[in-house]
Amino acid sequence: MERLADDTIESFMNAIEERLAEGQKNKIPFSRFLEEKMDAFDYSNTSLAKKVFHRVEKKKEGTVTYVPVTRQAIGAWLRGSMPSSRDIYVTLGMAFQMNLEEINHILLENYMGYGLYCKNIDDALWIALINGLFSIDSFETVREKIEDILEENVQQDSRSLATMDLWVMLSEAGTLEEFYELIRIYKDEFRDGARKFGQCLEEVIEEEYGYYDKAAWFLRDIGCLHCEAQFSKIRAGKAVVTREWLLRFCIALQPTYESIEKLLAKAQMEPLGITPAEVIIEMIARYKSNSVANSQEIWIMIESAAERLRQKGYEIEEDLCRKYNSVYELPVSQKWWFSFCIGKQLLQNEKNKEFGYEKNGYCRFAMEDKLLFDDMNRNKKNVSFKKSALEYMETGIPDWKQAEFQEIPALSIEKNYVPDALDMEKFEDYCYVRRPSRFTKDFLRNDMYFYAATLYSVWTGKCYQKENGKRNVEEIRQEFEKHSLEGEEFLTVLTKMIGHDEVLLEGNLATMVEAVAKVRQRQ
């Protein structure tokens, strides 16, 4: 398989920018709309920022809150960038005292490419919010109440209603209790759509992967899918499906364009819109079907495109376009301890001469996804793992060679294992130093490089790209600064390993593991 060429990324970026420009053709630029409205209401950047909210999900705490945007964000929109989420557009419209019809047509349809659909529960919630039935702070509480109503087993006559009639009734509800009662009366309308979406979800997974279980470990990394109970509720049609959840699902599963449209339709949502994130998803689906079939290659395109668009002022959520997001968002002590355990496991494998090869076919890199999706997700729930992570980060590892460590199943490769040809291709061009020969030293050198590349993904959540050189180490350095970690020796070793255009492979694996063991929390 040929390495992803620069012109492929360039053509991909050009296609995205053309699609974004096409979506805004013949429309008032958002910056001009915003400036005129701010002048009319005499809002400064600071005063408007206090009235506009965006959604913040803290996966570690399992909470969702809506917090004000910054005045810098307002300034960026005035200079030509655009918001990317519906919560921002809706609360912006409310700040400008726009009614439901105005927000739906002037803001959502114009600048996101789709409006609200009343038979989708999440959209019904936005209708009630715009009409002032509850405050933005109560959004998730009201959502939970709706989910409880949908699960009620009270026997009553099933009723159906034309979409426009339901829209009118929801928009005319005068109190929150009236809104709840409408949901209760017509819950079969909502519940049936959720049930059909759950069935469609399984169908799409099976179409893309062959069978559901093969994709299950991969899907745990997507947004709220890290909570398997929530995923089970969605599959059973018992949970509210948000568009944000569905976008995370699509960008991680990377289904065909037809499958994405089918999922949106089953969820009673409008087709893909013209926000940067949705355009990336659309372009990826088309590229996958036309030219790029390799998962790792696609993820590199996603991450590269998202970074370039952010540099141009577009807003795209970090976790939407970060492949190993569930690892990235772990407590720093767990990331550090997991990093150490990976190195110790590789050393143990070398000691036992378990290099994981058959007929010179090196398969360690085929384990990357399994390692970071499956094993890390399993370990983060392990009481012993969490306890060791906290204790060692507080006290340090006085003798790292003798330290007990949690075994990493993904790296315990069976002897005589023959890797799948596709798996071999997935990481060869991104992680391999060279195809190992029958000589042991080649496997040892590749273990060093594999370890360095994996540490990059653990600490940044992104795919490793070997040509990025110094930038790879700088990104890890920034993460260390953010978490007040002292790890200069570790960073120095990484610089020797992956901080150059050409891989130098100085030192040995034990030196790398020792450097990881010396990382400390700054006092």
Structure explained in plain terms:
The protein is mainly α and 523 residues long. It folds into two domains: 6-27 and 115-321, no CATH class; 325-521, no CATH class. 60% of the residues lie in helices and 4% in strands. It contains 26 helices and six strands. The strands form three sheets. Strands 1-2 form a two-stranded antiparallel ribbon. The chain has a two-stranded antiparallel sheet with strand order 3-4. A two-stranded antiparallel sheet has the order 5-6. Strand 3 and strand 4 (361-362) form a beta hairpin. The longest helix has 23 residues, at 187-209. The two termini are 48 Å apart. 40% of the residues are buried. Residues 357-362 have low confidence and may be disordered.
Short description:
The chain has 523 residues and is mainly α. Helix content is 60%, strand content 4%.
Number of domains: 2
Query: Any idea what the radius of gyration is?
Result: 25 Å
**How many E strands?**
6
Helix content: 55-70%
Overall 3D form: globular
Distance between the termini: 48 Å
Q: Which strand order spans the largest sheet, edge to edge or round the barrel?
A: 1-2
Low-confidence residue ranges: 357-362
DSSP summary: helix tally:
26
Structural class: mainly alpha
Which band does the percent of strand residues land in?
Answer: under 5%
